[in-house]
């Protein structure tokens, strides 16, 4: 199967402090990968580099066969729009409705022509969005069981509900890959379990690849086919989740 | 007791603080001296104040204030309101557009855009730092006496006021949600309007309401230099020492400003009530 994400010997530093040191891995289509490691190990930085939210200082990153460092802004957008992104928190626009936030997931798919500027404007809010986009957003909300909260303001939701809306927005993109940076970190254990279960189920159903980082070793093992552990900016372990020794992992990384 | 063990509140006051107080007192004394402030002169002028008040009251006297005159003042008051409203509206739109470019890292993020941001900030500063009366004198010279000069003055003044505060409000917005949209391929233009502007909206509305209050107050004064509105009527009555009719106008201005301030305050509370 073809690799949809490839990182080759990437390095990244903040000033003179090296954060990533020679990280290499490849992710195949349909595969789910969990990233574990203590704070400062480089998980979030790796995720931000994969999306070109931070520049790398050495190496190469390819998404869907395109080397992202050299892409022009329009090419970068057309690559990013295939990736649904869920951060730990602050994913949503607080004053807008849940439905508007989900509708905005289509913004990325809508940047390929000059005429799309006008249709992009309609996607700023569910009020201006066309019925096709609104219906699709409602479908995505139904898939995360939040259709009844569509017209609530995003800042009135609980942490778990917010993350589910962020997942719905990622689904609105119709992505080939979802990247989530500690999506359950700010949630209580039950909500965290639900959100991770939802991720894993939706990705498996739709054949979407998944990369997520977590501090929870059980989540890393239960919701991914493969896991990578990071230590001081390097990959210290890479293997199938079925073959890892959970107790040893907990002793080393929890 | 060892010096290091002394609690901070009992420790020696730093010498810099003491010097700052002395400097403040010296500057205050120097400024009061230069400002010509004199209580004796103020008390000595009381007869002029009494004369003004004697002639100003009663302000409405059927032998002195005709209906035609009152009707003219009313129209001038309406014109003042119209000038303030139209000028503020134009200023808000232009100020908002300039604020988008003056706000750090909002529309663009490159070295070249830093120069653009700096240039727009300078332009906004120019609009803000030159007083409105000076703008009014310039616009009266350019477009002639009347309400248009006043409207342009209020527009420029509002651009200066709102351009700065709008930019600061958008800079203060947490950019995480905009980054989440950008990471999923959205255009920067879309992320600004879909994520940053909605988050800044309460601040933008309250600033706009303050700008309108400010515009109403300054539109009254602009007439004094010929830029339309009720100030022009007030100035001519004061020149003719027709204090009774001047008092009618002062009363009308007071009512208008008070009404606008109350309405603005109510709307601000309404906006903030919806925010937690």
Account of the protein in words:
The complex is a heterodimer of chains A (254) and B (276). By secondary structure, chain A is α/β, with parallel strands linked by helices. Chain A has one domain (3-253): P-loop containing nucleotide triphosphate hydrolases (Rossmann fold, 3-Layer(aba) Sandwich). Helix content of chain A is 35%, strand content 25%. Chain A is built from 9 helices and 10 strands. In chain A, the strands form 2 sheets. Chain A has a 6-stranded mixed beta sheet with strand order 6-7-8-3-9-10, sandwiched between helices. In chain A, strands 2-1-4-5 form a 4-stranded antiparallel beta sheet, covered by helices on one side. In chain A, helix 5 packs across helix 6 (159-172) and helix 6 (159-172) packs parallel to helix 7 (189-206). The longest helix of chain A is centred in the last third of the chain and has 18 residues, at 189-206. The two termini of chain A are 33 Å apart. The model of chain A has no long low-confidence stretch (mean pLDDT 86). By secondary structure, chain B is mainly α. The mean pLDDT of chain B is 87. Chain B is built from 11 helices and no strands. In chain B, helix 4 runs parallel beside helix 7 (147-172) and helix 4 (67-102) packs parallel to helix 11 (243-273). The chains are: A alpha/beta (254), B mainly alpha (276). At the A-B interface, helix 2, strand 6, helix 4 and helix 6 of A face helix 8 and helix 9 of B.
